[in-house]
Design brief:
The complex is a heterodimer of chains A (137) and B (114). Chain A is built from 5 helices and 5 strands, in the order E-H-H-E-E-H-H-H-E-E. Chain A has a single domain, classed as Histidine kinase-like ATPase, C-terminal domain (Heat Shock Protein 90, 2-Layer Sandwich). Chain A is globular. Chain A is of the alpha+beta class. A 5-stranded antiparallel β-sheet of chain A has the order 1-2-3-5-4, covered by helices on one side. Chain B contains 5 helices and 6 strands; from the N terminus they run H-E-E-H-E-H-E-H-E-H-E. Chain B has 114 residues and is of the alpha/beta class. In chain B, helix 4 links the parallel strand 4 and strand 5. The chains are: A alpha+beta (137), B alpha/beta (114).
Chain lengths: 137, 114
């Protein structure tokens, strides 16, 4: 079993994606099916962008075992008031700055759901959000 | 379509990754919305974009895209070039608008993704 850990800063768009990039390199070295790698890193990158866009800071933990990859992204931030609404395609509270970067179209969480076998979102408004994703192989 | 031909058709120049000039591409996708690019289920396609920030490289990396055209004369910064080089991508800059660049490539036989 392998565990990877990354610290993310809210607002840091220059570094958003580095955890996904490092994870991709390691999953490749582990010879995991390229389709599983793609699903994992696309969903992870969406989650990283969400933290850069909305949270103050976050921590990513990736655990790779024999038959699955588990990614947990725990952030300190404003939280999500209405998770059901946030899961809808097209719903977004992103700032104009985030939109200028090519994101904030309300597609992040739906795309994470599409790519992961399991997606769990827990949030406490005013405190933070934890996203757990499982990718089976 | 060879990258070489794409460069010629778009009056473009290579920013980095010239070793990929003979790569053959059959599909392309034009977007300034990286969220859209991340929903695509395709590999080895050409991405045509008007954005010139580091997230186009990160998006291309996770989406397994190695060929990018940056339109509207946008210039990428040194750190973006460095990252693209590290990830083995070719970056091309064209003075044309996204519509014109896409239209020319489509008319010359490059296929849309869908």
């Amino acid at each position: 079993m392998i565990e990877l850990r990354f610290i993310l800063e809210g607002g840091d768009f220059d570094r958003a994606g580095t955890a996904s990039s490092e994870t991709k390199k390691i999953l490749k070295q582990l010879n995991i099916d390229p389709r599983v790698i793609k699903h994992t890193v696309v969903a992870l990158y969406e989650a990283e962008v969400n933290i850069a866009a909305h949270a103050y800071r976050g921590e990513v933990t990736i655990t790779v075992s024999d038959h699955q990859i588990v990614a947990v992204l725990k952030d300190e931030g404003p939280g999500i008031a209405d998770i059901k609404r946030a899961m809808l395609e097209g719903f977004s509270t992103a700032s104009p700055k985030v939109r200028e970067m090519g994101f904030g179209a309300g597609m992040g969480l739906p795309n994470m759901k599409k790519n992961a076998d399991v997606l769990e979102v827990e949030s406490t408004p005013g405190s933070g959000t934890t996203v757990k994703m499982i990718f089976d192989f | 379509m060879k990258i070489e031909k794409i460069i010629q058709l778009l009056d473009a120049k290579i920013v980095c990754g010239s070793h990929r000039i003979s790569d053959d591409i059959s599909n392309a996708f034009s977007s300034d919305l990286m969220s859209d690019v991340l929903t695509l289920d395709a590999e080895n396609m050409l991405l045509i974009t008007g954005l010139a920030n580091v997230q186009i490289i990160r998006t291309a990396e996770v989406a397994e895209i190695h060929h990018l055209v940056i339109v509207r004369n946008k210039k990428v910064s040194e750190d973006i070039v460095e990252l693209a080089n590290e990830l083995n991508m070719i970056l091309i800059e064209s003075p044309y608008s996204m519509f014109k660049a896409s239209g020319i490539l489509y008319a010359n036989g490059l296929n849309p993704l869908y």
